[in-house]
Every structure is written in C-alpha cells, then in structure tokens.
Write a structure and sequence with these properties.
By secondary structure, this protein is an alpha+beta fold. It contains two helices and eight strands; from the N terminus they run ααββββββββ. The termini are far apart. The relative contact order is 0.15.
C-alpha cells in the first residue's frame, strides 16, 4: 500500500510539474537573438500622422533605453480597461512602428498562481536583445457552487519581430486554465 501511495504521489507531482512547464516557458528569448544592442547616435523620432494624437507620449519615450530587438525603444499606454497598446521607436532611424495591441473582450488582468499570489511581470514581455514579444492576460469565470475559487484563463500570444518585413509574426497562441482563489478576480 505504501509503495502504491508513493507511486501515485510521484505521478501526480510529475503531472503538476509538466503542466507548470508547458506553454510559453518553452519559448526562450535567447532563441530569438537580435544581436548586439545598438550603441550609435539615437536619431530624432519621426511621428507618423496616425500617431499625432500620442505625440507627447511618444516624444517622451525618445529618452527611453533600447529595450527590444537590439535597437528599439518601446513606449506603451493603456487604451481603456480592455486594451493596452504602444509603439516602438527605431533608435537608428527615429522611425515609429506599431507594437502589438492587446485588446480583449475582458478587462486586462494580471494572472495569479494557484496559491493566489500574483504572477510577477508585465502584460507585455520582451528583451533588449531578442526579437521575441509575448503578451499575457487572464480572465476569470465563476465556478458553480464554489465561492472560494474561480477558473482562470491565461491567454498567451507569442510573436516574433521580423526585421526585414518590419512586422510581427504570430508564432503561437496558448490558453492555460487553472483554479485560483476567488480573491484573484477582485
């Protein structure tokens, strides 16, 4: 009986570990290297007409450090409770490119671990030396006859910046469900 319980415990632990490591964790920023960070002169920003209404925010972002794909400075802003967007400024040319806009039918929420602690990190995840750009958002659903727990849906969108085409390519969309304390929703 003791061997059976130990085997069952090991199997459950292995399944939990597998569930925690599947998903976007297998997409590593290092696997999408963009090379060395640009160290030359940063050109003045050239704001296109479609972004004139955000010119002050974009101009203020000109002073940001390079934080994406070796020569881009990201500038983000909220565009409502269900939206987050922004641009990236090419430090070499001053040209402005659209970032991925995260727009959902649900309010934007950080995600939570099963123990109720908020996951660390931003809704947008990217690195100065990588072309990988990840967005993550969670929404929640009540569980019938259970006021203490809610079902969490974590949606992760994984993109690669294609420098030659000057656009993002969606690599993968993942949805992970988990049960978290109801306090995570509120």
């Amino acid at each position: 009986m003791k061997k059976y319980l130990v085997s069952l415990l090991m199997l459950c632990t292995a399944q939990i570990t597998y569930a925690q490591t599947t998903g976007f964790e297998r997409y590593r920023f290092a696997d999408y290297s963009s090379g060395k960070t640009y160290r030359g002169k940063h050109r003045p920003v050239q704001i296109p007409k479609k972004w004139q209404h955000m010119r002050t925010r974009i101009k203020n972002g000109q002073s940001n450090k390079i934080d994406f794909a070796s020569h881009y400075k990201t500038v983000t802003w909220g565009c409502g409770t269900q939206c987050m967007g922004g641009v990236m400024i090419d430090a070499r040319t001053g040209k402005v490119h659209d970032l991925i806009t995260l727009s959902t039918e649900y309010p934007l929420h950080h995600c939570h671990l099963p123990n109720g602690k908020e996951e660390q990190g931003d809704i947008f995840k990217y690195r100065a030396n990588s072309r990988l750009f990840i967005t993550a958002n969670c929404n929640y659903e009540e569980i019938e006859n259970n006021e203490d727990k809610v079902k969490q849906y974590k949606r992760v969108y994984i993109y690669e910046w294609q420098e030659r085409q000057q656009k993002f390519r969606l690599i993968k969309t993942l949805v992970r469900t988990s049960i978290v304390p109801a306090s995570a929703w509120y």
